[in-house]
Design brief:
The protein contains three helices and 14 strands. The chain is mainly beta and about 260 residues long. Helix 2 runs antiparallel to helix 3.
């Protein structure tokens, strides 16, 4: 099932859907898809005219393939801003909890351009992360990763920067905020290149901000992702990242708290 097909199941703010089985990440489903499913329901709850500005995502437990109950609540509806909570529930337990701020545009004297795209090697000059069934997570089969910064996971390269070019491998109707969640979260934690052997790791919390007016991303367009390790210790890492389209326009800013069992 395509990413867009999975998200396309969401046609009301409170709904029971099926999580596809070809988006695995160890024993769990790819977090970017899980977040996108809940977000899509929250978007319907927020209504028209208020684009998403910020999402705060807490991954509480692994979401497995199969039935997932998604519930949303409108916590506050103001003239310009609405705050919506979304939950993904399996086996009677909340597995993911998301809070979103949706806000309409307003006149402002403050106008600061987003960060410029950094220098990077051309995609054809970059190292490709291969998909190896049974070794790399199943969901990575749907993405093309071309590393421009740092090292591959478990390479033992202790660079604070990690990232490169990314795109979906399959054509979809459009790239919306839901698909952007997939592009940003597809990358492994920026701390994983620091270890020299495979170890478990996961995202604990994730906050992402979307730039508006939203720059356009073509369906198979290669976007540049750059992550930076702020600090790490005690089995936790704190990273921030940015995503630009191929024209150099900033798309989203992201911050993650990751756990690494090493």
């Amino acid at each position: 099932m395509l990413f867009s097909d999975a998200v396309g199941q969401i046609n009301e703010p409170n709904i029971l859907i099926d999580v596809p089985d070809n988006w695995g990440q160890g024993r769990a489903t790819f977090g970017g898809l899980v977040a996108a499913l809940v977000f899509q329901a929250m978007k319907l709850q927020a209504g028209e005219g208020k684009p998403i500005r910020n999402l705060a995502i807490n991954f509480i437990g692994p979401v497995e393939p199969g039935p997932l109950s998604i519930g949303t609540d409108l916590l506050r509806e103001g003239k310009a801003v609405s705050v919506v909570e979304g939950r993904g529930i399996q086996d009677g337990q909340v597995k993911v909890l998301v809070t979103g701020a949706f806000g309409s545009a307003r006149e402002s004297v403050i106008n600061a351009e987003g960060a410029s795209m950094p220098q990077a090697k051309m995609p054809e000059e970059c190292q490709v992360l291969p998909f190896i069934k049974g070794v790399t997570p199943d969901f990575t089969e749907h993405f093309l990763f071309q590393y421009a910064y740092g090292g591959l996971p478990f390479s033992g390269i202790r660079s604070r920067e990690m990232g490169g070019w990314i795109s979906y491998r399959e054509a979809m109707p459009a790239i919306t905020e839901a698909e952007i969640l997939g592009l940003v979260d597809a990358w492994p934690p920026a701390t994983l290149p620091w270890v020299d052997k495979p170890v478990p790791a996961s995202t604990l919390t994730w906050t992402i901000q979307f730039v508006h007016p939203a720059p356009r991303i073509e369906v198979l367009e290669k976007c540049l992702y750059q992550a930076y390790v702020e600090t790490a210790g005690d089995g936790y890492g704190y990273t921030h990242s940015k995503l630009w389209n191929s024209k150099g326009e900033l798309i989203a800013l992201s911050q993650q708290t990751v756990t690494v069992f090493a």
